[in-house]
């Protein structure tokens, strides 16, 4: 029952007292009656629920009086000691990686202009910088503990970093080939595919098998959010499925885009994104109609 | 010129409004809420939370007593009954309000004449 769950969540963190339970029961039955009346006027159960809940207003002041213990410092838990400090090693690592990246950009700009606006040489000279910097930033980013997430296991992060490195390597090599005089499209794809494809596959595999690294308080927040607003997407699983679907769609679209661009012309490649947008809309539509069906059978 | 309601002013009289509704017969939360909405044609929407704190306050002052009904269908409801003290309080509040209203009218409309 939506209402019972909602009210339970509202008082989540209050110490249970006889009076509070009494009060909860009263609120629940009143909300139920209200919802029923609203449904009689032709509103859907979701609409009726939303309206009834909005009419309830803020009951925390009353609950504070009723419950001896106030909300068990959920807010405290959220802000105290959750801001992890960056270790010196990581700070140096980030700075170095950013420095290398910056240096690479400057170097390639210098070569670009001194070599008579030759993009081939410019990108080639960018390559030795962007690959290690990109990989290093990926590794550091994934293994850094943040307010919301625990660090990733270093081995896993290393695989990510290597895959990102491979992708960057493939992209920069093949794009420098692209600007080389008398470049052969087959050769460009020939360098792109063996690096980018395995890299993308590895990352896709890692992402799909990813374990959640959210901190407990965030998980609690998510849970409460999902339970209280169970209206739109039915559950986390559906949201994940939807995310994967559109992720696959966009990765595919970018792949096709690159392929058409290299083989023919960017003008022919651009419409791919139009199709991707249409696909995205279709996914959204499917999710909504599925959700409607679900709530109709409820 | 159409008037707008002063939410603060009305909130200050929630207790009296609740007592007034309970004068005729006992009622449970949603009945009280609905009868306020019906009377104002939905022009003013009181939050239910305001009513809940009013019940708690009135209960503490022994102006009303709460009891659970014995509905067999859909769950029991908590009813409120006005006490003798509540009736006296209600009359006092109304008298106070009428006095206040008279004074306010005299003060606010002074400019007119």
TrEMBL record, chain A:
<keyword id="KW-0472">Membrane</keyword>
<dbReference type="InterPro" id="IPR047928">
    <property type="entry name" value="Perm_prefix_1"/>
</dbReference>
<feature type="transmembrane region" description="Helical">
    <location>
        <begin position="243"/>
        <end position="262"/>
    </location>
</feature>
<feature type="transmembrane region" description="Helical">
    <location>
        <begin position="119"/>
        <end position="142"/>
    </location>
</feature>
<keyword id="KW-0812">Transmembrane</keyword>
<feature type="transmembrane region" description="Helical">
    <location>
        <begin position="88"/>
        <end position="113"/>
    </location>
</feature>
<protein>
    <submittedName>
        <fullName>Uncharacterized protein</fullName>
    </submittedName>
</protein>
<feature type="transmembrane region" description="Helical">
    <location>
        <begin position="157"/>
        <end position="180"/>
    </location>
</feature>
<feature type="transmembrane region" description="Helical">
    <location>
        <begin position="268"/>
        <end position="288"/>
    </location>
</feature>
<keyword id="KW-1133">Transmembrane helix</keyword>
<feature type="transmembrane region" description="Helical">
    <location>
        <begin position="186"/>
        <end position="209"/>
    </location>
</feature>
UniProtKB/TrEMBL annotation, chain B:
<dbReference type="InterPro" id="IPR052509">
    <property type="entry name" value="Metal_resp_DNA-bind_regulator"/>
</dbReference>
<protein>
    <submittedName>
        <fullName>PadR family transcriptional regulator</fullName>
    </submittedName>
</protein>
<dbReference type="InterPro" id="IPR036388">
    <property type="entry name" value="WH-like_DNA-bd_sf"/>
</dbReference>
<dbReference type="InterPro" id="IPR036390">
    <property type="entry name" value="WH_DNA-bd_sf"/>
</dbReference>
<dbReference type="Pfam" id="PF03551">
    <property type="entry name" value="PadR"/>
</dbReference>
<feature type="domain" description="Transcription regulator PadR N-terminal">
    <location>
        <begin position="18"/>
        <end position="91"/>
    </location>
</feature>
<dbReference type="InterPro" id="IPR005149">
    <property type="entry name" value="Tscrpt_reg_PadR_N"/>
</dbReference>
């Amino acid at each position: 029952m939506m209402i019972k769950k909602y009210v339970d969540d509202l008082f989540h963190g209050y110490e249970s007292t006889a009076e509070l339970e009494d009060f909860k029961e009263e609120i629940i039955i009143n909300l139920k009656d209200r919802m029923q009346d609203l449904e009689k006027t032709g509103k859907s159960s979701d609409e009726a629920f939303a309206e009834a809940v909005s009419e309830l207003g803020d009951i925390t002041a009353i609950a504070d009086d009723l419950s001896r213990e106030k909300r068990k410092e959920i807010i405290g838990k959220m802000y105290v000691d959750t801001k992890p400090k960056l270790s010196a090693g990581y700070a140096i690592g980030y700075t170095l990686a950013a420095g290398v990246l910056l240096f690479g950009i400057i170097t390639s700009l210098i070569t670009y202009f001194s070599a008579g606006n030759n993009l081939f040489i410019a990108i080639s000279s960018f390559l030795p910088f962007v690959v290690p910097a990109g990989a290093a930033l990926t590794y550091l980013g994934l293994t850094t503990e943040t307010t919301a997430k625990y660090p990733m296991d270093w081995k896993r992060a290393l695989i990510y970093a290597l895959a990102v490195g491979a992708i960057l390597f493939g992209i920069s090599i093949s794009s420098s080939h692209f600007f080389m005089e008398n470049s052969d499209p087959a050769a460009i794809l020939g360098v792109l595919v063996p690096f980018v494809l395995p890299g993308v596959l590895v990352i896709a595999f890692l992402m799909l098998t990813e374990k959640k690294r959210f901190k407990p308080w965030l998980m609690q927040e998510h849970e409460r959010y999902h339970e209280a607003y169970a209206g739109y997407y039915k559950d986390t699983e559906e949201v994940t499925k939807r995310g994967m679907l559109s992720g696959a769609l966009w990765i595919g679209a970018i792949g096709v885009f690159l392929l058409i661009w290299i083989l023919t012309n960017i003008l022919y490649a651009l419409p791919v994104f139009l199709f991707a947008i249409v696909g995205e809309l279709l996914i959204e539509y499917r999710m909504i109609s599925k959700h409607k069906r679900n709530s109709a059978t409820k | 010129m159409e008037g707008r309601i002063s939410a603060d002013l009305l909130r200050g009289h929630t207790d009296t409004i609740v007592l007034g509704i309970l004068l005729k017969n006992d009622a449970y939360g949603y009945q009280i809420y609905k009868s306020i909405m019906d009377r104002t044609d939905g022009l003013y929407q009181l939050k239910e939370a305001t009513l809940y704190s009013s019940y708690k306050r009135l209960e503490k002052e022994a102006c009303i007593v709460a009891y659970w009904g014995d509905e067999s269908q859909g769950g029991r409801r908590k009813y409120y009954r006005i006490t003798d003290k509540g009736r006296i309080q209600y009359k006092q509040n109304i008298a106070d309000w009428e006095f206040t209203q008279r004074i306010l009218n005299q003060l606010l409309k002074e400019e007119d004449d």
